[in-house]
């Protein structure tokens, strides 16, 4: 005799929820009740964010070279300095985040994403580990590059400095990367070596005297972006900006995006508890919530127009199609 | 043969002298050494196909070459220790999906693969390993079963006339074995001698051909002296015979013994898996061992059965493969285009140093390489764990089936045994059931219930059918619906019926005497002597006690008599006779002894009846007779047989009781009883001796027409009979069979019975289990026996059959009465023709029109053929039930497994849903990553997705889901129709789920992309990188698919909660644990440091989860409110407790839920009621049906 237990006989206590009209309507209603306010709050949060975007890749090309931007950017003898003036549209409370935004830049390309070696970044003893760093592993004479790989090699190297009138707005570049990256993934005793000494000239250079853990621009850059359009944190300005303030940006336009027609933008933005200026989440919540209200209403209507008594035996198949028996 | 009387050999009976037909023995002198073998086919011995040589009693010869034959060890396992790994792995990779994953795993070792090798190999190893473990365990069980058989013991001659017990597996060809009563024969044997003086023995071949009646086998005359252990000391002989073959009914060979050659025919061959009955022991020589034996030759490699769902599953997998190939093509074309036109501009990728995987100068080549990458990358469209999950579910289901207390048989202590778990899911989709009769439907145990003597019906006990009818009538529902539940559940003892008709019904029949349920004081305790026709009654009892071929056996301990009868009917008659005071207690070669003890005053008198002739029963004659001389010297012929046969042989003056008896016989038949008519004839001396002379002449004649002659002569004497009465025995059905058939019929299933039994038996059983009933139009298809030459006969037979089928179809078509039911009965011979290509569709069409179909005298092969015909002709799932080896073909051919209808389909749909939802997001991301083959998710997430994070809830769904409880299923058989109609797994539904998956993938990807586009995700200003986006998307997927499965469940126990919410919890746990390891790269501390503190992450999860599930919620809400399925309504009725409040509605619906059926108990009770009502109208007041418990 098999032993009786509620488990083996499948008689465990169970809750058997049934989608009664009441349940359907209240579920939709409940979702609506939650989602619409969340959406409104998100929208309000996004509204609070002030964002100034300035595209400078075209503007910084000298007028005589607009037909040949590539020659401009590739010629080291032409000065890349450029000055931009921004007008603050709304009051901006500190901290103000400085971002650079690239467009049409495939940081998520497999060839690119793969091309790094985490061990080498973390541990000075593993400096020779350059596997997976193709095609930027070693210098021509076979010395390992630290940090190796395409990501580091293509480091973004435009720089910005800001002044309001005569006041210098300091850009704080500390803490722009994740703490865990600085402390665990990029070694305190790993120093750049042979960097940008390869056959091809890439992006920015690194100070060989500063350990990787303090090269925050690199650390931010190495967090590859998910999409070809992305923003990366450049630094923070701990000064409140007033509406109609004029900010002068002195930038050196070093990074080559002209090759692939990518835009470069400088972004000044505040942030709220929810992050940056993103209306989408709020709208989505409001729409889904609204839809749920509508569905709750529609189902209520349906139950009134075409009511079906619960457990109405007339709906059993043999009662509905007596001929088909 | 000078043996001492009463010694070792029991009873000293020489049946061959008694039996007329079946014990014909070729004279021992038919072959001698000089003349060579003379028996049929004997000349072939030694030729090709007939090369086997067996040295009797000298098995040592067969243990080495050249006469080395396989041992008696049998193995039905698929694998052994050595072959397990290669074979099982091969089996696994025969599945397309697994093969695909194997290829990807191999490719993952090359740089083409977008993932790390371990993330490709680990899940595959896990999945395949699990399946292999399952295979291994199942094979181990088979092995244990084989071991049980191999380790059975049998007495084997070890030399010097001594026998010892050995395991079956140690038997070798040539061994002399001694098999005892009720043991199975360990191998195919040549019968040498038996406990009967003339070397006959009884064999039960149920496992071979399903026939229940015992077969008589007899040894060669020449080996008869080998009757005791010592005589085998010097026994030597050589058997030359055919090679192993699967033919059960032929054997060609001869025995060379003492320099003479004797032909062996199938009568001397005892086959493995048949059983020795009614004989204390036999000696035999092993001819075929192990896998050479005929029964093993018959068993074919069991085909791996694939359920329809599994086939559909494959179809869907193919569809997904096409999608996979399509998007891979798109992806690789996109890649090639980007490589050619864009890559040269992407200086940050150093296109100058391109390798061949991304070479802008050779975009086509790179595109082809990328195609492989893409095929691997999008592999998540194919649910790798689908097979293993479904398998796991089936194993668990099988486990629960085995554990089910409702399927526990207290008598045998057996639980249900799901031998293979492959087929569970089709149980819910059976359309036609093909059943073997014996042992499956009836216990094959007869109960003497009623009799009609001299036109008076005796016996107040009632059969199951009558009881049910009575109860129903008493319950008094005037409508036509029959409350079967009430019939089974009602336990009142007395039922007052309309117009003074009383049924007293009790289920407490005295079961003191097995096989005897007769209740009537008029006949018991000798009271019959006071009945008007007591002399006829006396005769009736004598016929019961004398006209048989049974042997009494005294139980040494109790002194009680048991009878070993050829058929259970005979046993029941003898028990009945004993209870009436006519105890048959002894049989000698020439006499039958009966102890008559019916009057209290006289005390027992022992009477001896000399048996002059015995014309035994066979299916052609349908009667048996004995010719006896009683103590007064009067010669009597006692004859019992089928009523139709007896009635046509009655004398003019023997028909006094014919009318009444016929009426009683009809009543009995209607009550589901098996009937026989009894008659006698008094012969005078001269008449007998004249006949006997002729009979002896016929008996000693040699030649093919001997049997015909004998039949003819027998026919001469079995005439001018005087009818005495009729008996009615109830063939006890297996417990629950009528209910079972009833419910199956109500659930709309078709039932075919395929039996090896003869037509009468089959029809009787059909009656007993209500597949047939009086008033059903019976269409019998059979071939009239003719003596034409083979060619002609075949043609004629075919034509006649064609005509019969056409007539039958016509009859069905012309029938106007909607209540009319047809039954098709066809015998094996007719079936051979009916199954031929040009006729089978006609036959099938007719069969489908009939409410029940019974095929009799069916060979195992025909069983398989019929099954195939039904399966292919109707195109629905068939289920075969059987218990013997003879049913194997049928069972293998039928497509049953089981299919737990809805849930299984749902599971598979869900698998496709979740994998599409997941796999397509990878594809979308490609479009944003230059089709480079980069995945937005971490390798480890993807690895865990199929195996850990989403599989357990599906398994819990498959194992534990109950949409309605099992009691309700039984009450509403029509719910079963949801299965065969495939309500839960049709293409509409599959496409719906796929669309749902597509929608979910779009929602998951694009909502997340928009939310995490370029803005800061935290108040600290950080933006999202690929790891953050990937992890958020993955979180959304986990939530969405687990919510989805929660929505599909209607039955939550803690197990479901644990699995569903546990899966979600596991994901968070995993990401924390994984995030604390440095190897997680960009996912390092992703939840705790990056995403956890970001409200945006949680807001996105909530939004996406809701967005993914709203459409399905709308769908089920709408469906339930406007288009509810039956089980929805019933759930609601139960939920609202309406079944308690409104019992009439509940009852009415229960009865309506039954398919209108023409077979089964209910239909029969219905018919009986109509009949009783009709009678009541005619002669209401006088009718008293009295059934006392």
Model description:
The complex is a heterodimer of chains A (325) and B (1189). Helix content of chain A is 28%, strand content 15%. In chain A, a hairpin with a 2-residue loop joins strand 4 and strand 5. Chain A has 2 domains: 18-49 and 275-306; 50-270, no CATH class. A 4-stranded antiparallel sheet of chain A has the order 1-8-3-6. A 4-stranded antiparallel sheet of chain A has the order 2-7-4-5, with no helix packed on it. With 325 residues, chain A is an alpha+beta fold. Chain A is built from 9 helices and 8 strands. Chain B has 1189 residues and is of the alpha+beta class. Chain B has 7 domains: 81-148, no CATH class; 171-298, Calcium-transporting ATPase, cytoplasmic transduction domain A (Distorted Sandwich); 387-430, no CATH class; 433-441 and 734-893, Rossmann fold; 443-474 and 512-682 and 721-730, Calcium-transporting ATPase, cytoplasmic domain N (3-Layer(aba) Sandwich); 916-1124, no CATH class; 1137-1177, no CATH class. In chain B, the strands form 7 sheets. A 9-stranded antiparallel sheet of chain B has the order 16-15-27-26-25-24-23-22-21, with helices on both faces. In chain B, a hairpin with an 8-residue loop joins strand 22 and strand 23. The model of chain B is unreliable at 1-11, 25-42, 476-511, 883-902 and 1179-1189 (pLDDT under 50). Chain B: ATP binds at residues 436-438, 570, 617, 640, 674, 755-757, 857, 863, 886-887. Chain B: Its main location: membrane. Chain B: It is found in: Membrane.
Question: Descriptors for this entry?
Answer:
heterodimer; A: 325 residues; alpha+beta; 2 domains; four-stranded antiparallel β-sheet; B: 1189 residues; Calcium-transporting ATPase, cytoplasmic transduction domain A; nine-stranded antiparallel β-sheet; disordered N terminus; disordered C terminus
